[in-house]
Amino acid sequence: MTSAPAIELKGISKAFGPVQANKDISIRVMPGTIHGIIGENGAGKSTLMSILYGFYKADKGEIFIGGKKTLIPDSQAAIAAGIGMVFQHFKLVENFTVLENIILGAEDGALLRPSLAKARQSLTDLASEYGLDVDPDAIVENLSVGHQQRVEILKALYRQADILILDEPTGVLTPTEADQLFRILNRLREEGKTIILITHKLREIMDTTDTVSVMRRGEMTATVKTSETSPAGLAELMVGRKVLLQVDKVPAKVGATVLEVENLSVIDDKGVERVKGISLDVKAGEILGIAGVAGNGQSELLEVLGGITSGTGIIRVNGQDIDLTGKFSDGRSRRARGIAHVPEDRQREGLIMDYMAWENTAFGYHHDPAYQSGILMNNAAIRADTEAKMQRFDVRPPNPKLTAKNFSGGNQQKIVLAREIERNPDLLLIGQPTRGVDIGAIEFIHKQIVALRDQGKAILLVSVELDEIFVLSDRVAVMFDGKIMGFRDPAQTDEKELGLMMAGIVEEAA
Amino acid sequence: MDFLTMIQVLDSTVRLATPLLLACLAGLFSERAGIFDIGLEGKMLAAAFFSAAIAAMTGSVWLGLLAGIAASLVLSAIHGLASITFRGNQLISGVAINFLAAGMTVLIAQSWFKQGGRTPSLMGGGRFNPIELPFAEALSTVPFLGPIYAELISGHSILVYVAFACVPATWWLLFRTRFGLRLRAVGENPAAVDTAGVSVVGLRFAAVAICGLLCGIAGAYLATGLQAGFVKDMTAGRGFIALAALIFAKWRPWYALSACLLFGFLQAIALRYQNIDLWAFTVPVQVMDALPYILTVVILAGFVGKAIPPRAGGEPYVKER
Amino acid sequence: MEKMPAWADAVLVPLISLLLAAILSALVIIGIGEDPIAAVKLMVQGSLGSTYGWGYTLYYATNFMFTGLAVSVAFHARMFNIGGEGQAMLGGLGVAIVCLYMPWPHWSLALIFATISSAAFGAAWAFLPAYLQAKRGSHIVITTIMFNFIAAALLNYLLVNVMRPAGAMDPATAKFPEATHLPTLHDMLAPFGIAFSKAAPANVSLIVAIIACVAVYFLIWRTKLGYEIRAFGHSESGAKYAGISPVKITVIAMLISGGLAGMMATNNVMGESERLIMNATEGAGFIGIAVALMGRSHPLGVFLAAILFGFLYQGGAELALWTSIPRELIVVIQALVILFTGALDNMVRMPLEKLFLMFRKGDA
Questions:
Q1: Do C157 and B302 touch (CB under 8 A)?
Q2: Pairing label, strands A427-431, A483-488
Q3: Which residues of C touch B290 (CB under 8 A)?
């Protein structure tokens, strides 16, 4: 090939305070290709792309666009250089119309009316050209996530982007929506656009990209042709060693039913029904995994079980009803009933990031008589207990006085797990147990979960990572649009079937 | 209340509503861009002093107006520095600005004029004088409409007309121009503006500057139009009433006009009557004083149409993680 | 890794902020044609150079301890209680009712009940804003501002129309009975043979304020309630997860905050003026904001900052008496302290953090 690379990065470095997010990264992306960038959470993919888009400033390094050295101090410059970006968290003004969002920052002249008219016309053109249909007058917050993503793509195309960066675009999409997205991306490639796809999902890389670059801990470890690699090879490049995605598990010794849920519904603050009358049960000694695309009601299910939000229906633990709306519908009462909860988002819920490790150890259990005496807290006892827990869960550094935000993601998660598991609960609710956790800690955490199950505890696991669901679960339920699409035995199903169920399609077994 | 008294009360309403309206629109620009401003009071006060001081020294009210605007802009710049550049707490910055103005105006007034923290009374060209609209005299004899035109509409100072003209101007700027679209966007989701290649900092500083400009006019009107000179703490909580009006108006220009006229009317009534007899009740004047605040609390409580502020309001925009 | 050692965060940052405020204040004094060094000498002489000066300094400091603590407790629950002024006004009403309408055999009993009553009135005035914040999401800063004005109107009405003795001209209550007179520092120190100015208003409520500082320390860092308040202040979503009720904590924290602000009235109303007058609070509720910011919401910091502001107030009064510098200089200093320790905190912090990071890298 003789043409210059669409994008070439040379020696990019970026630090956030003491954290080195990108180390001396170089990469070439050829025009008219789909180039994947894969890596674990926190490997520095998003940072690198944000630098390319002028959202962050690199500490060191050079950027070449179409062979020409280009300075990108801000997004304006990136847009001028023909780069468009679809962020993982959309950058849309939610109470504006689609049209207003499209023209924002790309208006023609000081008055809105002509800009809006022009955008309306070109939106029609783009829709027919790429199959990107969106109602131009809809208010963005009323659109589905998939359509909001289309607005983001349209924004880039309206600005005549030749290079499109998509950051984890399928995280919030159903498999069907994801397929539609990839069809659109293919059509864009045929038109000669260059696409950079950031993801941590191996399958997407294998299915759609021409070339793939692998990032690990802020460094670019390899760039290979997709056709010349395999998922296993990529996984090894991602983590730096062979991945053991298997945990040794003896068959489940299932006991009595611990958790019964009947016809449970949850309506959120905005009045949207998130959980739609679901029923399930979890028995002692088993792990029930809830699979599904993020945003299909799993989070709300966990929250209502954990007492964070209220709902309607029946929840029974060990045969006794649990208060869902009244005075005893909070986390404190749930803990008193033997329910432990490792929440999906440890930074927003599971931990107080500004509390020291020992204060976090008491978090949620601060009414425990061992930790307090009526009015006063027994700080010395909590500290001693924390020290012991940190030893057993191998938290590093084992310093109870260190503030939570100063631990790594894996160690933060271990602090939460130690707190919840060592309570010896009858039922453990656990959401996204290994999100943003390094590989070493993942194994440890998986083993702890299985060990708890082998002690005869009931475990309800919610994860958007299908791999994790397969590794840990004894039974799998798939949620879609607030409902359970069905239960499956992980040994008798596969990713394909679960993927369809996650899109709301159930093929009844003959 | 007879017809003439009513006209007089309404006339007084218009004059009292003017500084509220200017300050309210000032706050509207700032808060629509996501910068909360409880320093409207301080900016008005500073502008009131400097406009009166310069007008007293030069004899020119127009120079006074410019000085007032400049003083208000300086405080706006401090607010911008604290809340945009250094991502500080916007509310605390506003509190500081109010105190800064309250202290500095008296300090400088004492240093310059030695009259116990006030400026000399303004006369002649040092004040904004009423403008007689065409035919006001001639038409005043026309029944009903005549007095309305001659007394209520005509005979205000230029700044009153400016303030009222600011309402449609603000509406047009916000909802019909590129600047307005971006300004509203930056108050809702600054990241959207940033990734669209528009400077969040620039937009927010522009909004804060417009806020300073309008507060400057409001303060200048207080000291050189409504009254003839500066006295200590002469804003007397008007900045907060304007803030209340802004919430009352749900951050919309035309609603702001109605809210300010309502609050201005309450002030006019309180000024004219000590106690108001309503059938069997006697409403003490203090109720009139407190009414704007009570009404705002009721609105805030959301029992009468919830007031939802711009979503990014009060939050500094942090891009780096 | 910590960006900066804890001591730098707790001590260095506020000290530098304070220094910046002091330099600017000096420039202001030069700007109005006075000598800042002479002014400082005069302030020190006037506020710390005699027991009379100390008596006033400590009197003001007592006010500021109460309001500073009030703002601090709310800060810990991540609320900005700007309504200390109104709550302190209502506290005055609580004191006046106890002192005027109930017979008291001894000042100590009167003080206990006046303290309870002032706290209850202050807390009651904070309740509605707290409830509206917790239940309806009404921004507490705006509602407490509004409640300050409503309190002023209410007191105006009561003092003019209801509580003013027949025939009296000024809007104020009658003088409190002699039995409610609080011992001043002069009265308290005389038995120990320590001579203290008779004319200075510092009184036994200073002890109440110090007790309040200690009590708030225990509340925030030693009690379960304090643990919950801080957890809620750091993360509302976290609090919900842990079963801590946001509504409960919002309301309780604001009741405590309002109660502390109200208790200020034992000093200014009961201890000093001995009757309820208009504008008795003299802006002390707002100074509490500066005190809390400077004291980093820690009771010890609040105690020290309150004494510093007491010094500034008494010194400022002396300045106004002996020079042509008006008392409003103190308002300017107060504004600068709020600006630098509050709003411009990052201006001081960010370069310092970079500096520490540089040293850290140098070590490695």
A1: no
A2: unpaired
A3: 149-150, 153-154
- The answer to whether A37 and A197 have CB atoms below 8 angstroms apart is yes
Scored b (16 or more CB within 10 A) or e, C300-337 reads ebbbbbbbbbbbbbbbbbbbbeeeebbbbbbbbbbbbb
Testing the interface with A: which of B181, B195, B198, B201 to mutate, by most A Cβ within 10 A?
A: B195
> Is pLDDT above 90 for B96?
yes
In a domain, B12, yes or no: yes
Average pLDDT for chain C: 92
Contact of C180 with C105, CB cutoff 8 Å = no
Query: Each residue of C285-322: pLDDT tens digit?
Result: 999 999 999 899 999 999 999 999 999 999 999 999 98
* B321 CB-side CA count, 13 A: 13
Per-residue pLDDT reduced to its tens digit, C262-292: 999 999 999 999 999 998 999 999 999 999 9
Interchain CB distance below 8 Å, B320 and A16: yes
Contact yes or no for C2 and A334 at CB 8 A: no
- Helices within chain C (DSSP H only): 6-7, 13-31, 36-48, 51-76, 84-101, 107-131, 140-157, 185-189, 205-222, 224-234, 236-241, 246-263, 265, 284-294, 299-322, 328-338, 345-363
Give domain C63-305's CATH architecture: Orthogonal Bundle (1.10)
Which residues constitute the domain of residue B111? 3-236
pLDDT at A64 over 50: yes
Instruction: Inspect the interface and report whether the beta carbons of B100 and C339 lie closer than 8 Å.
Output: yes
Number of structural domains in chain B: 1
Q: How buried is B278 (Cβ within 10 angstroms: 0-12 exposed, 13-18 middle, 19+ buried)?
A: exposed
Q: Which of C3, C78, C228, C241 should be substituted to probe chain A, the one whose Cβ sees the most A Cβ atoms within 10 Å?
A: C241
Neighbours of chain A (3+ CB pairs under 8 A): B, C
Neighbors of chain B with 3 or more C-beta pairs under 8 Å: A, C
Task: Please tell me whether residue A368 adopts helix, strand or coil conformation.
Answer: coil
Interface test with C, best of A352, A354, A403 (most C CBs within 10 A): A352
Q: Does any domain span residue B254?
A: no
Chain C residues 152-181 with a CB less than 8 Å from chain B:
153-154, 156-157, 160-161
A225 strand-pairing partners: A211
* CA-wise closest residue to C140 among C220, C216, C86: C86
Question: Is the CB of residue C332 less than 8 Å from the CB of residue C25?
Answer: yes
Amino acid at C286: F
Domains of chain A (ranges plus CATH)? 7-239 (3.40.50.300), 257-502 (3.40.50.300)
Q: What is the mean pLDDT of residues A313-340?
A: 91
Of the candidates A17, A330, A345, which has its C-beta nearest C245's C-beta? A330
Mean pLDDT of the A411-421 span: 94
| pTM, two decimal places | 0.89
Q: Return the pLDDT at A243.
A: 55
A87 to chain B, closest Cα gap in Å: 9
- Per the CB < 8 A criterion, the answer to whether C59 and C186 are in contact is no
- The domains of chain C are located at 63-305
Residues in C touching B27 (Cβ below 8 Å)? none
Per-residue pLDDT, C2: 59
Does residue A479 surpass a pLDDT of 70? yes
Q: Is residue B230 part of a domain?
A: yes
Contacts of B319 in chain A (CB under 8 A): 55-56
CA A311 remoteness from chain centre: 25
Whole-angstrom Cα distance, residue C231 to residue B105? 42
Angle at C202 between CA C197 and CA C203, to 5 degrees: 110
- Phi first, then psi, for residue C49 (nearest 5°) are -85, -5
In a domain, B91, yes or no: yes
